[in-house]
Amino acid sequence: MSNEFIRFMKKSLLVAVTLFALRVFAVPEIFGSLIIESGYDIISSVGEAIGTAGIIMLLYERFIWRINPLEKTPVISGSYDGEIEYQYNGGGRKRVRAKIKQSLLSVSVLMYTDEISSRSISSVIFNNGSECVLIYSYLTHPKSSVSKRNPIAYGTCRMSIEEKGVLKGTYWTSLSTIGDITLIRESE
Predict the structure, then answer these.
(1) What is the CATH number assigned to the segment(s) 78-185?
(2) Is 161 exposed, middle or buried (0-12, 13-18, 19+ CB in 10 A)?
(3) CB of 111 closer than 8 Å to CB of 97
(4) pTM higher than 0.90 for the full model?
(5) Is 159 left (phi over 0), alpha (psi -120 to 50) or beta?
(6) Structural domain boundaries in the chain
(7) Quick one: CA dihedral 24, 28, 29, 35, positive or negative?
(8) Phi, psi of 133 (to 5 degrees)
(9) Residue range 110-139: average pLDDT?
């Protein structure tokens, strides 16, 4: 399990315990003079707390984390323009576009040029304290007109999150191709 997932589960547990405590102490008839009237009262309060915490944490994981100033995961979702400098068949440069979708625990990358597109299979944002890095594996999907000279391939990309809206990194594929990528977020 990733560190981010473990932190998320700890936050979820804290929210559920807090909601349970509020439920129990906000409705004193459940604990009449610290004597439990029935086990059902406790079980129903636990169920309410877990259900409410689940809804709150789902909203947090999808949306609210982006505005939390204490959250260390950078927000990189958006549309990007950029350039690939590739070393395949003598090398060259190619314009690239990318769309990144992100929640607290997942990142999806769709990248495309005039000849090929790729979609992430797995991804993670890694923060080692000195830099944040997006690492993802992908599968390419070439257009039929270029599929003989640029076949389907698996690849991996490592991109540093340089500054707000700029991603720079390298990629390598199962066809032994390598290259450098620079992406700049489009203004919103």
Answers:
(1) 2.40.128.380
(2) buried
(3) yes
(4) no
(5) beta
(6) 3-67, 78-185
(7) positive
(8) -130, 135
(9) 93
Average pLDDT over residues 25-47: 64
Q: What's the whole-number mean pLDDT along residues 76-105?
A: 94
Res. 25: pLDDT tops 90: no
Looking up tokens 């450098």, which residue turns up? 180
Q: What does the block give as tokens for 99?
A: 């769309």
- Residue 175, both tokens: 């066809």
Percent of the chain with pLDDT over 90: 65
CA 122, distance to chain mean position in Å, is 10
State how far the alpha carbon of 108 is from the alpha carbons of 24, 76, 98, 125, in Å: 41, 11, 10, 11
Please report, to the nearest 10 degrees, the dihedral formed by the alpha carbons of residues 54, 2, 65, 52 taken in order. Answer: 10
